[in-house]
Amino acid sequence: MRYQEVPQVDETALRHGVLEVANLYGRYGYRTVFDLLSAAGWQTTDSVVRRIWSEEGLQGPGPATAAGSGCGCMMDRACDCAPRRPTMSGAMTLFRGIPTVP
Question: How far apart are CA 82 and CA 63, in angstroms?
Answer without folding.
Answer: 20
